[in-house]
Design goal:
The complex is a heterodimer. Chain A is 70% helix and 2% strand. Chain A is an all-alpha fold. A two-stranded antiparallel sheet of chain A has the order 1-2. In chain A, helix 3 (82-107) crosses helix 14. By secondary structure, chain B is α+β, with helices and mostly antiparallel strands. Chain B has helices at 14-26, 43-47, 54-80, 93-120, 152-161, and strands at residues 6-11, 33-35, 140-145, 166-170. Chain B is elongated. In chain B, helix 3 runs antiparallel to helix 4 (93-120). The chains are: A mainly alpha, B alpha+beta.
Chain lengths: 422, 178
Amino acid sequence: MKTQYSFDEQFEFTGKVKTWSLIAIVIGVVAIAFGILTGAVERTFANLLLMGYYITCVCLCGVFFCAVQYVAQAGWSAAILRIPQAFIKALPIAATLLIVITLAGLFITHHGVNEEGKDVVIPYLYKLWAAPGLSTPGSESYDAVIAGKSGYLNIPFFVIRLIGFLVSYTILGLLFVKYSTNEDELGGMFNYNKSFTTACVFLAIFGFTVPVFSFDVIMSLEAHWFSTLFGWYNFAALWVSGLAVITLVIIYLKSKGYVSWITVNHLHSLGQLIFGFSIFWTYLWFAQFLLIYYANIPEEAAYFYKRWEPEFKPWFWINVVINFAAPLLLLMSRDSKRAIPMLKAVCIILIVGHWLDYFMMIMPGTVGPQSHWYTEFGLIELGVFLGFAGLFTYLVLTQVSKFKLLIPKNHPFIDESLHHHI
Amino acid sequence: MSSTKYILGLFDDPDNLMHGIDKLQKNSVPIYDVYTPMPIHGIEAKLGIKDSRLGYAAFMFGCLGGTVIFSLVYYFLVHDWPMNIGGKPHFAVPDFIPVTFEWTVLFTAFGMTFTFFYATHLFPGRAPRVMDLRATDDRFVIAIDAKGNTPHEDITNLLKEAGAVEIKHNDRKYVSYE
C-alpha cells in the first residue's frame, strides 16, 4: 500500500470545465432575463430562491463536514479536508446571493391576485406573509393567522435572522480554513485544538439555528402551514446533497491526476455516508408525510393536497424514488461504493434528486401548477439550474486552485488518513 | 508415521505473526487458519480469505421479512377484514410502511445472527471449538495441517525463526470438543 506522496502540487483551474462553467453562467443569466421579459417574474424568483438556497446549503455542508470531522477527532478524512474547505471559501458569495435574492423578492412588488381573489400589491417572494396589510386589523387583506405569527414573521426580524445566521456560519467556517492553512506553515497541535473548539461552537449554533434558517427561507413561503420536522428534513437534504457534491469534486480532481493520496477507501467512506444519510433523509421525509396523511387535519393536509394536484403528483413520487431507491439499491454493496463510475452516477442522481426535492418544497406554494405535469420544468428551471451549477463549479474550483497545498499536510491525523483502509 | 495432526505456532506479537505468515508462504507451506484475540488489519488479504457473503444473506432475509409482513397486513386489512380507519382507503400503503420497515429490520437482524451461527458452528450452549485456548487471550496462533506437510521439523524451524514463542504438535484438532 502506497503511503508516500508528494504534496507539492497546486490545482490549476483551466480547460473545458472552466469554459463550460462560464458558458453555464451565461446561460443562467440569459434564462433569468428570459423569465423576467416573458412575464414569468414570480416563477423566475422562485427558481432563483431555489438555486440560491441550494448552493448556500451545499457550501454550508462544507462547514458542517469540517466541524463534524474536528469534533469527532476523525482521522480518515484529514486528506480530503481541502475540498469542503473550498466550499467554505465559496460560502460568502453564495450566502450574499441568497440574501440579495430574498431581499429583492421581499421588496420588489407587483399587482397580483391573492388567495381570496382580490387584486392587491404583493411581493414576488413570501407573498403570504410579507404583503402589506396582512396583519393590520381592519385592512382589506387582513389575515388573522398571519397576524398571529407577525411577531416572528415580519420583514425586519426575518432579514436580521437570515443575515445573522449566514454571517455567523461564514465567520466560523472561514476560521476552519484559516487554522488549517496556518497549520500547513507551523505544524503542531495549536491550530488543531482551536479548530476543535470552533467546531464545538459552530455545531451548537448550527444545530439550533439551521432548522430556523429553513423555516424562514423555505417553509414561510407557505406561511399558514408549519411542520416542526421541516428543519431537520431540510438539514438531511443539505447534508446528502453536500456529500454528493464533495464526492463529485474529489472524483473530478482525481480524474485530472490530482490528489493521488485520496484512494478508493476514502471514496468508500463518503459512499457510506451518502448511503446512510439518503436513508435518513427518507426517514424524515416519510415521518413528516405519514403523520400528516394519517391525522388528516385540514390545515396540515393542505400542504400535501397541493403537491397531489395532477401536475405535481408524478414528481412528488419520483422525488422519493430517486432520492431513496436509487442510493439504496445502487450503493448497497461494498463493491459498488468502491466503483468510481457507480459512485459518480449516484452522486449525479442525488444532486438532481435534491434539486427536485427543493422544487417540490418551493413551487406548489409559490407559482402553483403549470398546464401539465411535464411542463412544470421549462427553460427557466433548466437555465437557472445550469447557471447556478456553473457558478458553483467556478467558485469552488477557483478556491481549490488558490490553496498552496491540496492536503493539510501537518494535520495531526494525516498519517492515519493516508493509511485509511477499509 | 507421526501422529501429529496440526502444528500450531504461537506468537505473542501480531507483527511477528504477520512475519511468520510471510515466511511460511514464501516456503510454500499451506496455512490451515490463523487465530487471533483481536482483529488484525489486512490479514484477510494476506491469507487470501474471500469476502464474507453475510451481506447477501442479510439482504435476502430483509426482502423476505418485508414481503412476509406486507402480505400479512394486506391479508388482514384489505382482504379478510377491511376496516374504515380515518376514512382512508383500505389499501393505504403509507400506513403499512412502518410495520414493513420493522419486520425488514427484524428479519435482517435475526437472519444474519442465525446465518453467522450456522456458518461458524456457534450455537448457544455449544462448547466452541478452539485449537488453542490462549488464542482467545494473548496468543496469536498459526495452524498448519500436518498431513502432507512433511518434514515437520522444517515447519517448526520456520516458525521459530519468525519469532514464535511456542510451537505445538497436536494429535487432536481441537482442545475442546464438547
